[in-house]
Each structure stands twice: as C-alpha cells, then as structure tokens.
Amino acid sequence: EKGGFEHFMLKEIFEQPKSIKDCFRGRLIANDGKLVLGGIREYANALTNANRIVIVACGTSWHAGLVAEYIFEEFCRIPVEVEYASEFRYRNPIISEGDIVIAISQSGETADTLAAMELAKSKGAIVLGVCNVVGSSISRVSHEGVYTHAGPEIGVASTKAFTAQLTVLTMIALRVAHRKGTMAEQRYRSLLAELETIPAKVEKALKTDDQVKKIAELFKDARNFLYLGRGYNFPVALEGALKLKEISYIHAEGYPAAEMKHGPIALIDEEMPVVVIATRDSSYDKIVSNIQEVKARKGKVIAIVSEGDSLIPTMVDFTIEVPGTHDALMPMVATIPLQLLSYHIAVMRGCNVDQPRNLAKSVTVE
Ligand code: M6R
C-alpha cells in the first residue's frame, strides 16, 4: 500500500507530479485558454465581484491560504484576509455583504474550520470550500467548492494536499482575474501554460532527494532551524518550518526574511542552520542581502535557488536548485526540497514520520 516506499509521507511527496496533474485534469485546458471549475459555477459572479475574500483554515491549509492571498491580490485585485479558523470564530468577526469566505481543508473535518464556516454562513457570507476529502463535513457545509483530488493523504504531515490546494487556488484566481479583466489575455494564457508545466518541474525538484539527504545528515542533530522567504516564498518558509517541527521535533521558525533584523537575527550563530528560499523572483536582490546578513553572523545557510543561479552558491554553505517558474507558482516547486529535508531528518532521528507524537490526521476537537 506504500507503493514500495518506506513511509506514506515519502510516497505522498513523490506522488506530487501526479496529484497536481489529477487536480487540474479536465479543468485546465491551456491550449484553448480555458479553465473549467464546475464547483464554483453558481457563485462565480459573486466571487468576481467580491469586495473582500476571507480565507479560513488551520496549519498547512492556512499556509496555502497565505499564498492564495498574494495570488488573489495580484491577479484579481481583491483584498484578502487569511485567518486562523480558531481565531476567526471566537472574535465576532466583521462580515459584510459582498464578502466571500473560502475555507481550505485537506480532511474537511477540522473542527475550528467547520465552526468558522458555520459562523460566516450565519452572518450571511457565501462560503466556498477547497477540500480534499469528497463528501466531508466541510464540503457539505459550503455553498459550493472545488475538490483538490490529490487522493487519500495518510501521512499526518500534509504534503500532496498542500500542492493540490495551491493548484486549485491558483486556478480559481486565474478564472476570476480573467472574468474580471484584471489580467491581460496574454498573461492569462501564459500562466495557464506555465501551470501545466508544474508537474514536470516538481518531478525535477524531486531529483534533489539524494542531495537533500546528504544535507539532512549534516544537520539532523541541530536544536533549532530558521526558515526565511519573501513574497510568495514567505508562506513556503512557514510551511518548511512546520514540516520540520511536527515530524522531527526540532524547533523551527519561519519568518519573512526582512523581519529577521527585528528580532530573530539575535539567534544567529555558527550553530544555527538557516534555510533560505531564494529563487529568482521580484524579491531576489533583497533576499541576497538577507543572506549576507546571516552569513556575516556565521549562520549556516542552505539556500533553495533557481536553476542556473551563479551568485548565491558563492555566498552560502549549501544550495539546492529547483526549476524556475512564475513567481506565483514557485511555492509548488520550492516546497518540495523542504518536505524532503524534514522527512530525511525525521527518519535519521528515528521519529515516527507518518504518525508523529501528539498529532492526529484530522483535528476534530477544538
Ligand atoms: O485537514 P486540514 O487541512 O483542515 O488540517 C489542518 C491542519 O490540522 C493540518 O494542515 C496540520 O497542520 C498538518 N499536520 C500539517 O502537516
């Protein structure tokens, strides 16, 4: 059942080229410039004309929401707020007419997310779901929604569900941007074509496995890790840190790279591994200076860079190359080596990767 892999988590990491493809199969028709999202037909207009989108989720799904915030704001020019479902539900949130709530959940059973949706509904919001499990509570409570179709995810650490959530959210944003006219036709077409190449790019990113394993060997006994990213890669840093924490029990923090100088930089010394997601995008020059700041304090830098980067490898201790893509699609590719890093470190530390202590696959209690 693990398909020859030692753990479900590893199997699910390696399934991603296929699960992303399954997610857009029949929906993304790049040649015709078409996106067919049957799950949001009735509310497509409401979404296009939304004054505001509020995303509610927990954990990894919340990280997917953060990426979606940047995507919706850039592509559709709709203001987005991303809320922890547990915070949203307990503070009498303001929901106005024209607000759309999107709930993201792999299991579709997360108690706080479900309660946040019920609350939003009771205040008159239109609630859309992005779920992996067909027929789950969250999918039933939402007015409409889009399934991620990543297939069953068994490992407690979410991997393929995350990249499928990003795929769905990107498709929704592109659909809305196109209807709304906030994205030029040519750019829309090129993004559809680029999205279609992501499974092959993820496949290539998976080829870093051996190299990542060697790095894992060197850092498996670290007590702390920092993960830094900017822009679209900031949520990737949060997600990388969460993966490491939950399965290897190493304390890790994700930060927007520029926030480092407001506190966490005090932690950096030669003992501190710092994973920097520094792919070539619009914040590239800025992240290069953040790397310099870490190196000046003797931190050990592991950088995720775009293929062919010749500058960063001269500055850091280790580089892992991933194929380049559009800034907004990079999280799907850049997250792969981070999933592998946490997996290998956890295995080397003798941890139960598929069922880490104190955690459940779906958190049905608040
Ligand atoms: O099923 P959900 O997506 O609603 O679950 C949300 C979180 O509990 C989940 O993402 C959790 O953080 C994972 N263990 C992360 O790997």
UniProtKB/TrEMBL annotation:
One Gene Ontology term of the molecular function aspect: carbohydrate derivative binding
Keywords for this entry? Aminotransferase, Cytoplasm, Glutamine amidotransferase, Repeat, Transferase
**Can you tell which superkingdom this protein's organism belongs to?**
Bacteria
The protein's location, in the record's own words, is: Cytoplasm
**Catalysed conversion reaction:** D-fructose 6-phosphate + L-glutamine = D-glucosamine 6-phosphate + L-glutamate
Spell out the subunit comment: Homodimer.
Q: What's the protein called, per UniProt? A: Glutamine--fructose-6-phosphate aminotransferase [isomerizing]
Q: Which organism is it from?
A: Marivirga aurantiaca
Every SIS domain range: 43-182, 215-356
Gene Ontology annotations of biological process type? amino sugar biosynthetic process; carbohydrate metabolic process; fructose 6-phosphate metabolic process; protein N-linked glycosylation; UDP-N-acetylglucosamine metabolic process
Active-site residues per Swiss-Prot or TrEMBL entry: 361 (for fru-6p isomerization activity)
Q: What class of enzyme is it?
A: transferase
* Function recorded in the entry: Catalyzes the first step in hexosamine metabolism, converting fructose-6P into glucosamine-6P using glutamine as a nitrogen source.
One GO cellular component assignment for this chain's record is: cytosol
* Entry's EC annotation: 2.6.1.16
